[in-house]
């Protein structure tokens, strides 16, 4: 099955660096379609160039986060959910373009995470919704489902908001395209409590702990890490420019 790898991305000093590194990872993966959705008013040529150089099958979209939901440059990173509008744009593209295609797997891959190539082969096994451990997230080295001897999910080892239906990160799961097509209203939303994006989406797709498929050798392997690129230290002048979003050109970005 084809993998549809959805990446929201926003302008910042390290955007090109992160996307370049990600493109080099993804270029090792056969049968992968990269859907990159810029958080911007229009497509930018710097992102288009990276997509073109990757030689991957790809779709380049843009969907701007509404300004009342957009964090300021100086806000702490957790104040508002990120990637909501962008992931929805990609899901709508899938609903429009892949109806009738039938096979495929959808994964939400942040631009700054780190992916072991073995995660992609796990994704291809997904019939319904697959789940696996994620490194460096939720205050832990590894956040993971906990399995019974028979391989079923009995709980999650999460310590951050462990009472969520699915106390997991966006990087921890992939879903079959057929589920996306049969649940067109399963979208992300700004109206869910903090930390509940994953849970709400999966519940809206009809996923529960029983029909979720634990992968990565019964959840004993870490093939994806929630690495975060440090916010670049910039001069006051640069931060002002960034806030006003003027005066930037290809060289600076
Ligand atoms: C964690 C999760 O791993 C994300 O999947 C989730 O979207 C996010 O929390 C959340 O709570 O919303 P984190 O590393 O904290 O991720 O988030 P970022 O990497 O800053 O953002 C996630 C993705 O959205 C990135 O690909 C980023 O480029 C993009 N993004 C971020 C935007 O498109 N617009 C923004 O304003 C900020
Ligand atoms: Mn991130």
Helix content: 25-40%
How many E strands?
13
Number of helices: 8
Largest sheet: 7 strands, mixed
CATH A-level architecture: Alpha-Beta Complex
Number of domains: 1
Strand percentage, roughly? 15-25%
Provide the residue-averaged pLDDT. Answer: 94
- Under CATH at level 1, the class stands as Alpha Beta
Ligands, ions, cofactors: uridine-5'-diphosphate-glucuronic acid, manganese (II) ion
Walk across the major sheet and give the strand order: 3-2-1-4-11-6-12
Description:
The chain is α/β, with parallel strands linked by helices and about 250 residues long. It has one domain: Alpha-Beta Complex (Spore Coat Polysaccharide Biosynthesis Protein SpsA, Chain A), CATH 3.90.550.10. The protein contains eight helices and 13 strands. The strands form four sheets. Strands 3-2-1-4-11-6-12 form a seven-stranded mixed sheet, sandwiched between helices. Strands 5-13 form a two-stranded antiparallel ribbon. It has a two-stranded antiparallel ribbon with strand order 7-8. Helix 1 runs parallel beside helix 2. About 35% of the residues are buried. The model has no long low-confidence stretch (mean pLDDT about 95). Uridine-5'-diphosphate-glucuronic acid binds next to strand 1.
